[in-house]
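Pilot study result, target chain (211 residues):
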Amino acid sequence: MVATVLSVANATKRFGGLVAVNNLSFEVNRNEVMGIIGPNGSGKTTMMNLISGALRMSEGSISLEGRFISALKANQINRRGISRTFQMVRVLPGLSVAENCIAGMAFGPRRMWGDEARYEAGRLLERVGLAKHEALPVGSLTYIDQKRLELARALAADPKLLLLDEWLAGLNPTELQEGIELIRSLREDGITIILVEHVMDAIRMLCDRCV
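Predicted structure:
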């Protein structure tokens, strides 16, 4: 039997008279890559914000492994096991690459500190291709490496569900192929993923199905 990780039922979000998400329902199964596609302004990022708790729904419900999370705050949802990256890369200025990664451990279900946290940060940074950058200030990273760092920080929370909001956007062909392979490897590691993306080749290569 296929295990359902996330259930979205009749999700609706209004901003005044504007309906950004209209009565959307879908389920995401364990170890699946689900794509959310559509033109600019169709509500894709809004849906990611609803799932992660950055926004509250006007109507509908969202459940994670059978438990309602619709009324929870973003940090509570993160601790339940949902992590994300953002359309515009968000890193923590003034910190090193390793410190940025360690910061993600404070919000997940399994918190780590001290040597354990540093070891785990090193493992995750190696996982995303940043093993040689641990001690560097985050401001010295290239655009693609900032994206890799944001992904490592999301993984540091040990997510059951990973939300990737246009993580492949703005990459050159070589970086894009490397990014696709990285996402594919995360899925092979058993991570369930929701992918918002305009790069249709990536959608076709990575996603089991789309809404």
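One observation from the pilot: The chain has two domains: 1-81+159-211, 92-157. A full batch analysis is planned for the follow-on phase.
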